[in-house]
Amino acid sequence: MTKATSVDGAAVLRWIELELPEPPWREREPFLGFVYVDPQAGLSAKGGRAGDPQQAEQPSLTVRLPIGVPGRVLGDDEAGGRGLPATPSWLPHFGPQPPAHGPWRTDPGLQGRFHAQFPDDLQVLVHDGEPRRTGKRTELCWVRVVAEEARLAAPAGAGEAATRIYVGELLNKPHGLSTVTAGERIRFVPAPGGRHPLYVTAAYLAERGEWDIAPCSSCGLAETLDPPTVMAQTRFPDAGETAPVMFTAHCALCGPPAHQLVQRRRQP
Ligand SMILES: [Zn+2]
Question: Domain-by-domain residue ranges, the chain?
Answer without folding.
Answer: 9-94, 103-264
